[in-house]
Every structure is written in structure tokens, then in C-alpha cells.
Amino acid sequence: MGMTAAATNQLLPLIARLFLCAAFLPMGWQKTFGMTTFSGRDAQVLRAAGVRSDGLDWNLAKPGTVLAPESQDGAPFEARSLYTVSLRCAESGMPSPAVLGWAAALTELCGAVMMGVGFFARLAGFALAIVMGVAFWLTGASSLAWSMPMEDYLRTWTQAGLFFMSVTVLLSGPGRLSLDAMLSGLPKSGRTAAAGKKSKPKQVEE
């Protein structure tokens, strides 16, 4: 195998996976275990979605439940940082924004670990691509312009880059340096060679 083929089959998928792991693991960790203080309109929207400082009110968080934010208290309260995602979802009219916030955070956290070790990496790539695609649609797609602030510019193209890198792992696989490759056994070429060997006929003793 030449150097170019070795890099394509082994090093590049590994670098892509480790990059995605390094990018998503801190984001998922901070969303899941970090705390943020919400107040005013944000507090009203989250309370209407069933978010409480001590957890979720599932009667309000379940699909199909719609409650006007204006009917809720706007006093500040502290909750997990993942509910910043829920705010974006609620503002876009998506159902069950609190549940979607949890789904996004856990996908980033678990998907990053799966990417890092190369375990069900295609599935992780698919899930992370969905998260980044939705994030781009919620926060970046509407702000694309030549005059957009640098902060928005960096966020938008970071989301797009992570999306396409996740799709790359989804389509090309995790490479040989991964748990997926180890668990799948021999490479295809090795299985073909082994199957092609002719077994020696047993000598029949007279």
C-alpha cells in the first residue's frame, strides 16, 4: 500500500474523528452539566416549555402542549445550559423545545465519545450532522450576508464545517484505526485472500 492510500484509509479518517471529538465533547459537556441563569422573556419561554430549576415539568414538555410565555413568571432562575438550545427551538416554533435541547446536548456528548473511539462512527456522524444542520438553520442561515458581524460569521461557518466533516465520516467510515474496524474482523482484502486459498485434500490411507 502506498503512502497516499495509507493516509487515506487510516490517517485522514482518524484525524477527522479526533477533530470532531475535540469539537463536540466540550460543547456537549458544557450544555449537559453547565448552568445558565435565564431571566425576563427567556425565563417566560422556558417556563412555558416546562423547564424548571429542579428539572422538567413533563406535562408541559410533552409534544402537543402549547402555553403562552406571557402567562409565566419572568423572574430569573438557573437551569442547565442546554436550554439555550431550547430557546432557539421555541422561537422557531418547534414542538417540545425542552426535549429537543436535551436531545441535542446528549447527541453532542455521546456522539463525540463514539467518534473518538470509532464506535458506530457512521451513526454518530449521521446524528451530529443533523444537530449541526438544525443549528445552522436556526442560527446561521438567516444571517448570511457580506456585512454580517465577525462573531456570526465564525459561528456560521464553524457549524457548516462541522456538518460537512460529520457527513464525511458518515459516507467514508471511521477508517481502520477504529473500534468499528477491529470488531468487523479482517479487512475485506484479507477475507477474500483467505477464502481464495485452496485447502489441501486429505490423503486417504490405504
What structural class results from the helix and strand content? mainly alpha
Q: Tally the helices: what do you get?
A: 9
Provide the helix percentage.
55-70%
Shape estimate: elongated
Percent strand equals: 5-15%
Mean pLDDT: 84
Q: Let me know the largest β-sheet.
A: 2 strands, antiparallel
Task: Explain this structure.
The chain has 206 residues and is mostly helical. Helix content is 64%, strand content 6%. It has a two-stranded antiparallel sheet. Strands 2-3 form a two-stranded antiparallel sheet. Strand 2 and strand 3 (55-56) form a beta hairpin. It is elongated and about 65 Å long.
Short recap of the structure:
The chain is mostly helical and 206 residues long. Helix content is 64%, strand content 6%. The chain has nine helices and four strands, in the order H-E-H-E-E-H-E-H-H-H-H-H-H.
Secondary structure topology:
Elements: H1 3-33, E1 35-38, H2 40-48, E2 51-52, E3 55-56, H3 58-61, E4 77-80, H4 83-91, H5 97-117, H6 121-140, H7 150-172, H8 179-183, H9 188-196
Antiparallel strand pairs: 1-4, 2-3
Helix pairs in contact: 1-5, 1-7, 4-5, 5-6, 6-7
